[in-house]
Amino acid sequence: MTPQNTPPRKVIPIVPQDADPAPTQVPATEDPQGFLYAAQQKIYPRSVSGLFANWRWGMVFLTQLVFYGMPWLEWGQRQAVLFDLGARRFFVFGLVLYPQDFVYLAGILIIAALSLFLFTTVAGRLWCGYACPQTVYTEIFLWIERQMEGSRSAQMRRDAQPLSSDWVLRKTAKHLAWLAVALWTGFTFVGYFSPIRELGLAFVQLNMGSWESFWTLFYGFATYGNAGFLREQICKHMCPYAQFQSVMFDKDTLIVTYDTARGEPRGARARQADPTALSLGSCVDCSLCVQVCPTGIDIRHGLQHDCIGCGACVDVCDTVMDKMGYARGLIRYSTENAMAQHWTQSQILRHVLRPRVLIYAAVLGSIVLAMVVSLALRTPFKVNVIRDRGVMAREVPGGKVENVYRLQVMNATEATQRYKISVSGLPGLVIATEAVVAVAPTEESTLPVRLQAPADAAPPGSHAMHFEIESLDTPGHVSEKSVFLMPR
């Protein structure tokens, strides 16, 4: 047989047996907005292993260890982290905060926002891909789904078949497991606002209050719906971060990229085939990068706002490159400038410290430093002075004028504290009540204070004066302004 009569060799793409060779995306139509009116096709993300998958699961374990475990930690004789809304006390390990410390919450929110801006500018949507609660719980729910229903291909085959008892049993088991995780998540969330041990006892006895029951169910079913059903729709359509992230990107931002110059033209080939002889690039067109994507995009189409930067496509593509004997990195974390100019890894890293990154880092560092210093120098008690409106000013025996006030002293420590009260501002102004008050740990004490001054100490009218409150047990001093009224 002559070479010309040799039958063509059959080309088989390198695709694992349980993979679906066809992409799961809805094909593009002439109407770019058609997806808004078409039925949403369910995405079956394929499981993947590799470096970034390990990092992702590491973050799942870390974040959930913190979230589920924190309420059970004790600090002294109380819960380590508790936001007691009823008592208006917020306990964070050794700190006891009051509503008046709201500025610290504002500082934390600003730090979180600036951190998000900084990390996004440097390395894209790392938060979305590795630590966002939507991503974390979706990973957990997908893992449960695979345990109950099998691999991606098994799920697709079963869903395409008529209703059967096997389908019903597997779906029921999956949803019961989802509900258990979701309700435990809701219970833990409420445990940050209500002592979790008391809450757990009430839960076992079916005696939870209406407030606790509502928020446990609300947060639980939100987790169940978001992680079990909405999944990628949250990231693509409901999350505001996905919509404005492009403002923080530039051509030196690390993103998941496909090396078009190396990968195209793509096409299937035998493992032993020479891609150069076939005029093909390194991409074997196996579509696995699409199958593992949690939002169902094709990274080979370039940067898309639906990409959450999880790196799943990087892991699976590296696996295929290893099987084919090609170099890794056809899909990798890189930058637009690096891809266009073929930079090395060291060149990419050198472009990280650019002006906007330095500005974000400087502002973020300054705010963090200010927060730390403020907390370190924070006075461990607070005082509010309220004039008694029922007794404006009155004359008392001895030729003196008396004003009545109410002092609210809040002890922000976990030990009983004694506070000494003194006044200044008018000649002969004295305290006619007890000048030392004791306040229980983390409690607030309201006490009436009567001030007296000679009738001739000042002309009629309002006169500025100060309350000076000094802690006798711990360092601390507070000065509060008020006024002393002299009758006409």
- The residue fraction in helices comes out at 40-55%
Shape: elongated
What profile does the largest beta sheet have? Answer: 5 strands, antiparallel
Low-confidence stretches: 1-35
Proportion of residues in β-strands:
15-25%
Please indicate the count of domains.
2
Estimated radius of gyration: 33 Å
Q: How many helices does DSSP assign?
A: 16
Structure description:
With 488 residues, the protein is α+β, with helices and mostly antiparallel strands. The protein has two domains: 11-378, no CATH class; 381-486, Immunoglobulins (Immunoglobulin-like, Sandwich). Helix content is 40%, strand content 19%. It is built from 16 helices and 16 strands. The protein has helices spanning 51-69, 102-123, 126-131, 133-149, 152-160, 165-190, 196-204, 210-230, 232-238, 240-244, 260-263, 288-291, 312-324, 336-341, 345-350, 355-376, and strands at 74-75, 78-79, 81-84, 89-92, 95-97, 255-258, 331-334, 381-387, 394-396, 400-411, 417-424, 430-431, 436-439, 444-454, 461-471, 477-486. The strands form five sheets. Strands 8, 9, 10, 12 and 14 form a five-stranded antiparallel sheet that branches. Helix 1 crosses helix 4, helix 4 (133-149) runs antiparallel to helix 6 (165-190) and helix 6 (165-190) packs across helix 8 (210-230). The longest helix is centred in the middle third of the chain and has 26 residues, at 165-190. The protein is elongated and about 110 Å long. It starts with 50 loop residues before the first helix and ends with a strand. Residues 1-35 have low confidence and may be disordered.
